[in-house]
Amino acid sequence: MNLDNTPKLKLVGAQALLEELFDADSRPSVRWALYQAKKGNIPCFRVGKLVYFNPDRVREAIERSATEAPQPPRANSGGAA
């Protein structure tokens, strides 16, 4: 029972994190997730050698760091300048 109305912290392992954030066709590897955590690119919690993730915080970190791929320039649709 949560009496103080604070949200519960949800922690998952790397495999569960990837399953929650990515669809099966575009899911990176567990090794990628652990490497990103080691480099500090995504937040994690360490308990000894175990690594846990909060999916909401990781999603926010990915959204903050993500950039859209540049769009190729459009060809001039005709007409003299």
Report on the structure:
This protein is mainly alpha-helical and 81 residues long. It has a domain at 14-65. 36% of the residues lie in helices and 7% in strands. The protein has 3 helices and 2 strands. Strands 1-2 form a two-stranded antiparallel ribbon. Strand 1 and strand 2 (50-52) form a beta hairpin. The radius of gyration is 19 Å and the shape is elongated. The mean pLDDT is 88.
Summarize the structure.
The chain is mainly α and 81 residues long.
Envelope shape: elongated
What structural class is derived from the secondary structure elements? mainly alpha
Strand count, sense and barrel status of the largest sheet are:
2 strands, antiparallel
Please list the strands of the largest sheet in the order they lie side by side: 1-2
Q: What's the alpha carbon Rg, rounded to whole Å?
A: 19 Å
Weakly predicted, low-confidence segments = none
Strand content: 5-15%
> H/E element string?
HHEEH
* Amino- and carboxy-terminal Cα gap: 71 Å
Mean pLDDT comes to: 88
**Helical segment tally?**
3
Q: Level of helix content?
A: 25-40%
Total beta strand runs: 2
